[in-house]
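The record is passed on directly below:
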Amino acid sequence: MAELYERFIALYPYPHERIRHGAPRAELNRRYLEHLHEGKNRGTTPIVVALNPTLLGTIENNVSLRTLTPVQDLTADTIKRYAHDLLTDQHHYVDQFGVEVAAHEAFRRLNENAYRQTYCRLMKNGELDEEDIGTPLKAEYPFELTAGIINEKVKSTDIDSAAELLIMDLPLRDASGVFAYLPFGGWDSSPSPETLLLIALYWLERDDAYPAVIASDFIEFYTPVPVATRRDAEILAVEHTMVSSAMPVRVYRGFDKLVEALYGQHDWYLWWEQLPRRRSSLKRPKPA
């Protein structure tokens, strides 16, 4: 893991903090919030990176495909140029169509059926039928990143294969831009970095939701103001389902359970079922 860490910080030479394996989950939650508060004064955005070979390979492939740079030749400057180009394209697209329209189009492209059959009806009518969702919602949850729970449970015998958690302060005032610097996705059923950029911007503006964690097969968001109404929880649950169809099936065992989990929740967990099998499985992203 030492070589992996050295490679990563060569590509991302930014201030960061390493969270030790087995650290109490509260330590990550507390330190992330401290970095977030301090970053607002410094003009930086913190992101927890669950570093492992798969995540770094995905990032390198996404940058390599767009910049036409061999993976072995990637540098910190290449990453900066890649991020700048993605953000510039996003700004032009959003200026033309608006954040909400751009995000809704991204949702539609991800899951046409869910968008037209459920999302549009919910947005138009304000509520779902009781047969679609009938479980009562619960009280507000405490803030607890799943990445911290996973890290806390790492055993000494598993350290060599476990992801290392880094809280990195990226030079960004707009927190949604972390997906330009750390281009997660683009493999199998996961959204492309371009799509995540648009959706993250939408959630940031509407829900004050900050990208908090990027791992090889999941991401997390943090919001200081959780959704507090049934309708908002339902809307967010449909959006999460469009972004990751595994959420109501494999993670929460039902759409109503996903709604329950989002109501009053400060952190949003999004997971994808499959991992890239090899670097060539990644496809060149299409323009937004």
